[in-house]
Amino acid sequence: MNLTEPTEFTLLPDLAVRTLGGAVIWANDESFAEKENLIRPEAATHQAATFGHKGQVYDGWETRRRRRPHGATPGPQDCDIAIVRLGVPGVVRGVIVDTAWFTGNYPPEISVEALAVQGYPPAEQIAARDDWTTLVARAEVGGDTANAFAVESDQRFTHVRLRIHPDGGVARLRVHGEAKPDPRWLDSGPFDLAALENGGRVADCSNRFYSHPQNLLMPGQARLMGDGWETARRRATGNDWVRVRLAGTGVLTSAEIDTSYFLSNSPGAAALTGIRPDGTEIELLPRTDLLPDTRHRFPLTPAEPIEQVRLDVYPDGGLARLRLYGALTDAARDELSGSTD
Fold first, then answer.
1. I need a surface site. Which of 14, 18, 49, 95 has the fewest CB within 10 A?
2. Taking a C-beta distance cutoff of 8 angstroms, is the pair 299, 336 a contact?
3. Alpha-carbon distance 136 to 210, whole Å?
4. Are residues 55 and 231 in contact, defined by beta-carbon separation less than 8 angstroms?
5. Contacts of 244 (CB under 8 A, 6+ apart)
6. Which of 73-82, 242-251, 296-305 has the lowest mean pLDDT?
7. pLDDT 10s digits, 225-271
8. 185-339: CATH topology
């Protein structure tokens, strides 16, 4: 199953995924399959001829068949709705409405909207609001397809609303973008400038054959090997790498390189290089041997401010998490505070 078109936004983190704290807070109907399936981190699966009390069991969200009175004209109310609270607020750059395994029961059209709110209002209040911003205008989708839609907006949002027209099933909803956290957290204690929830993100990497590099920056500890980033076995010379854009320009004081659950496929060594705002580089951690299945912690000598970090792994392999602790510059803190107002 392929995306409907090539897209670059899938390198950005999925702000809606459950492992980042996303939640499906409301749906008007989930007669056949639960709304919570929309944001599960793993790809949807299917087992044919597996029936429960409500019919074929689907790994997705599926609503009942809508019936209009005979002769009634279709209207904007003829749709089903699910609302997702993003795990981390942010700027949405692209959406994937994945109808995997839905073939005769997928919605022919979808639309996606977004909203920014403060605090934690009840789901019913969110559902009743009428100030949603359109991210994806009503558009046709295919069945058993990861339907990709680029988004042109620089607004910060906290919630996303998926409409399916008129009904049917969707396996997964992916909301890729750039995290813009609550500025009140910027000075609340030790600050991981690489964390997705703080606004860090993977900007590029050499290889993402087995798993997505954004996993490195997810909250909490990895639960298994698949929660991390793993490259293919390198047969050529050189080494694999990942480049992280920090939440803002800052000075790093310590790093954690975690190989938990990677036993026979962890890198033999790693190095960290800081990238200044002008593009020049500074060594943060020289090439250092790593152990398998170990949380390595390294003090870093505070140096000048940097805005990106490149992690080189030698020659290849897998990591569970990368943490980069430090402090934002005053200018970066002011910029982040202004961007999330």
1. 49
2. no
3. 30
4. no
5. 194, 200, 201, 202, 203, 216, 217, 308, 309, 310, 311, 322, 324
6. 73-82
7. 888 999 989 888 999 999 999 999 999 999 999 998 898 899 999 99
8. Jelly Rolls (2.60.120)
Radius of gyration of the chain (CA): 22
CATH 2.60.120.260 region(s) of the chain? Answer: 9-179, 185-339
Alpha carbons within 13 A on the beta-carbon side of 66: 21
User: Domain 9-179: what homologous superfamily?
Assistant: Galactose-binding domain-like (2.60.120.260)
Distance, CA of 15 to CA of 219 (rounded, Å): 12
Q: What's the burial of 147, exposed, middle or buried (CB within 10 Å: 0-12/13-18/19+)?
A: buried
Q: What is the maximal distance between C-alpha atoms in the chain?
A: 74
The HSE-up count of residue 260 (CA atoms within 13 Å, CB side) is: 16
Q: Which of 135, 131, 129, 174 is nearest to 154 (CA)?
A: 135
